[in-house]
Write a structure and sequence with these properties.
Layout lengths: L14 H8 L23 H21 L5 H17 L4 H24 L3 H18 L4 H17 L3 H14 L7 H16 L3 H17 L14 H15 L7 H14 L5 H17 L3 H15 L5 H15 L5 H14 L3
Helix pairs in contact: 1-7, 2-4, 3-4, 4-5, 4-6, 5-6, 6-7, 6-8, 7-8, 8-9, 8-10, 9-10, 10-11, 11-12, 12-13, 12-14, 13-15, 14-15
Amino acid sequence: MTDDRTPSRAPHLTGAALINAVQPWLHLHNLEPLPAPDQPGTRLGLSDVARIEATTDAFRELDNAHGGGLSRLAVVGQLQHVTHLTRTGTYTEETGRALFVAVAELASVAGWMTHDAGAHADAQNYLLLGLQAAKQAGPDGAGIGGHLMNCLARQANHLGRTDDALDLVQAAQYGTRKLRSGRLRALLCSLEARSHAALGHIEEMTRATGAAEQALADEDTTTTPGWAAWFDLAEFRVTAGVCEFEAAEHAPGRIGNAINLIAQGTTDRPSDRVRSRAFDQIALARAYVRADEPEAASTATAAALNLMGTITSTRVGDRLRELDIELGTAPKVAATADSRASIRAALQPL
């Protein structure tokens, strides 16, 4: 466990080292015994696990609304406390397995907040810790394990490691192959499509997008876990639109599909998903630039900057820099120049 005063010295894993690190989770059928406590202490029950889950839900809502910067150290502290309980508490088999699922969920939030704050090596450590907990949970940890693999793959995509992202998401699909079709399968297929699009595999992208749409349609919404609730129809449409944007690098005629899908998604996006709405507007602005619609791109850029003022997210800043680069390739018109000036002003350190 680390915080801002003791930064991690562990390397950020890539390539074969990263794939090797996630391999143990893929063998969920090998149910491991629960660990014996180091120093037997507090007796834990399912009510204690429920309180951990409620705390995790609260942190997840804060992350969605305000980004990872403000609450990250608090959730890391909670993760330290809960992992300590797994080593010192006593519990039944049922409670123990549920406890490790709860640890995995909390680690997913800690890892994602830390990734959002730009501390990528630490974020990866938390996500891998979560995978270890999901493995300890046994078959009940398959779902949250798949989500943690999704987080690792999204982090790899953000860092430009598309091959790693595709390897991770395909490993996640293998590890969750026995679960019912639904939102987890939809989000993994959607991420697979995005990785294929970035690599120029258009047929594979189209197949994976169709599989994601079908899995989302097949879902029983009464059983959706909290960690999967973010992947709704709005998220699917925006992701499909980003895939079309990537595909337009190879087939320029697809940029209209990108604009339509992203616009549909952001219209349906819940108002409390502020960071996601900022990403939507940035993606829409980039698509409008590619379509040679500078006024529309300017409007979307202004909307993204307005939303950015209410959140703390390094990733939003990264995406704005990508938009600035995209604007630099556009014709030199007033709207474009104004957008670039606004982005650079917003990204200036205080």
